[in-house]
Amino acid sequence: MDKLIITGGTRLEGEIRISGAKNAALPILAAALLADEPVTVCNLPHLHDITTMIELFGCMGVELLIDEKMNVEVHASTIKHLTAPYELVKTMRASILVLGPLLARFGRAEVALPGGCAIGSRPVDLHIRGLEAMGADIVVEDGYIKASMKDRLKGARIFFDTVTVTGTENILMAAALADGESILENAAREPEVVDLAECLIRMGAKIEGHGTDTIRVQGVERLHGCSYSVLPDRIETGTYLIAAAATGGKIKVKDTRPDIIDSILIKLQEAGADVQWGDDWITLDMHGKRPKAISLKTAPYPAMPTDIQAQFTALNAVAEGTGKITETVFENRFMHVLEMKRMGAQMDIEGNTAISTGVTNLKAAPVMATDLRASASLVIAGLLAEGDTVVDRIYHIDRGYECIEEKLQLLGAKIRRVPS
Ligand code: UD1
């Protein structure tokens, strides 16, 4: 397994480009299964999760054309198998996103049940219940969700009792081809859900209210082809800004969207960063100062994303003062805290809150990445530590960060990958 070795102590300075958003690219690729003409998806990031989705399409017999810029043309009409096998679903839970489109377009789908994962139990009951409300017959047997229906899915009113991002996306895609009107209540408002809805509209879907908690969909009989460019990755944007703030640095991130990360920018300003932005860029300058500790609580959009919690925890490890970070979206999402403590961080977990008192310097130690965002936080901790930090199990990071070591090197970090 590859490792990253980071020699800490350098302030991040420079400019980088932000990649397309993984969490928008995955549902948009799945949405391409709904169209009876080719759909071209552009600005896809080079990431393992995207490769896994492409591999899944390959298993289903869906023909794809990929150009040198990683634009992918999906020909869904060539599909031969309606199954997402366990071997792929176990490496990427988001494979569940093919369930709604396969059922809505082809009348049948078998998707392996995603198991538990490192950041909590993460059930998919709301996906299943939503599709059942639209008339699908669903059984869970032999570790698979087996869904079928006699005719077309029927539009329905669906209330999500927990805000679920991929759950909203699955039902939205199914509703686009259902017979009649669907109303999705307590829907996720994440920018990636909005991006998916915009892509579906480009394909001919009739959707209103995306970006609010009530989405109305008038089902149509067919969806046509289109070309769609995925929005920039707000979590990648936030990760580099936090890394720069934690190191007392000065960076510019380009090709991004400041308007969808208000909650992150406000906390960076509270930490003492001078933050400026234009339509598609953000600059951050700490003027060489140590950050101040921040307190935050994660919650669905537009509040603080759970996917940026670990990175802010790394900043608090070296910040001036005491910070409280409360996780409300997933249970068991503080494994990085234990690793940071091994690097000398003064932190304790009380229930779902990590309370820290910043130290002036972390000390390098071998650490282990446990999930995607935890790995990013350990890389930030490595940038802040005296000595060489070795981050193991970085396959997690390759699932969600395009060229992380190249981008950090562009910002002056001393980081290298050691193949196993
Ligand atoms: C998506 C993101 C992930 C992010 C998360 C929360 C993708 C591919 N992944 O994951 O990066 O961390 O949103 O912003 O977009 N829940 C249920 N029943 C369900 C579904 C979810 O109880 O059927 C619960 C979960 O256990 C969790 C909460 O709802 O506590 C939110 O999860 P959800 O929004 O579904 O996360 P994902 O869509 O899997």
Please tell me what the overall shape is: elongated
SS elements, strand count: 26
Identify the bound ligands: uridine-diphosphate-N-acetylglucosamine
Please give the alpha-carbon distance between the first and last residues: 5 Å
Oligomer: single chain
Unreliable spans are: none
Largest pleated sheet: 4 strands, mixed
Strand order of the largest sheet: 23-25-1-26
- Count of helix runs: 14
Helix content: 25-40%
Strand percentage lies at: 25-35%
Q: Tell me the radius of gyration.
A: 21 Å
Rounded mean pLDDT is 95
Give the helix/strand class: alpha/beta
Structure description:
This protein is α/β, with parallel strands linked by helices and 420 residues long. 32% of the residues lie in helices and 25% in strands. The chain is built from 14 helices and 26 strands. A four-stranded mixed beta sheet has the order 23-25-1-26. Helix 6 links the parallel strand 10 and strand 11. Helix 5 runs parallel beside helix 6 and helix 6 packs parallel to helix 7. It is elongated, with a radius of gyration of 21 Å. The model has no long low-confidence stretch (mean pLDDT 95). Uridine-diphosphate-N-acetylglucosamine binds next to helix 1, helix 5 and helix 6.
Compose a concise summary of this entry.
With 420 residues, the protein is an alpha/beta fold.
Which features would summarize this protein structure in a list?
single chain; 420 residues; alpha/beta; four-stranded mixed sheet; 25% strand; binds uridine-diphosphate-N-acetylglucosamine
